[in-house]
Amino acid sequence: MGEIVMAVKATHVPSMLISEQPGPAHGCRQAAIDAEREIGRRARERGVDTFIVFDTHWLINAGFHINNNAVHEGHYTSHEFPHFIQDLPYHFPGNPELGRLIAEEATALGVKTRAHEVKSLDLEYGTILPMRYMNGDGEQKVVSIAAWSTFGSLEESRIVGEAVARAVARSDCRAAIIASGSLSHQIWENRLVEQGFNTISREFNKQVDLRVIQLWEQGDWPTFLRMLPEYAQYCTGEGRMHDTAMLFGALGWDQYQGQAEVLCPYFESSGTGQVVMELPVAGRVVPSLGLEMPVS
After folding, report:
1. Chain CA centroid to CA 187, Å
2. Which domains, ranges and CATH numbers included, belong to the chain?
């Protein structure tokens, strides 16, 4: 029987790459890089063999989708930020057996989900960047799940998260689940975006983000999950925060009992609010309970 042994909310800002390069921005995202490397260290310590990434940079319009290739490899250039990410090499093994189980479980729960084994289906940087730091040696397998559903509901994403937990339990995997996305995500308008490299675009968003981090540290999940749909809407959550709905779906939704640990303090980046947090899995609710917890 498999087990989820790690759960994380993580940033994937492209400026992490810029932070690695010589120049005026060198070191600007070192805290985020260090935090994600620490996640990788903890994952290896706990025997994680597979990272399951909920990727808010993979946009989908119909159904839910999994990049289920046996090997993920290529050279990635971002269509969104080609001046930030160019020809970035990546190579990670996949876990097709687990991906197929996730699709099977989600579809059985009423959310049509397809696991694709198509060589030309590349990873998005919402998966590549966290894996660069958490799984830099490429030893752990990677399953990437699209987490920006333009027409899907947060309730459907909760179900996909529950399906992930059910699938892992049916497997022999020790899995880490990674919700890859920001908190608030109102990027600066074009004429201001360069000067706003290290700032947030709306004070309202920042204050809500900080309150959300407090709720996560306190473990007040019922309050956070009641506000999640409006938070995603009013603070322009990245990918409508489908990654977060998947994360909590896998943990047991508002029955989850853990308290989050901040590994990278909140920071502002190109208008958005970013953080790296681990959620201890000891307090998660096992999927066999069959909880029914709708999201508006």
Report:
1. 18
2. 3-286 (3.40.830.10)
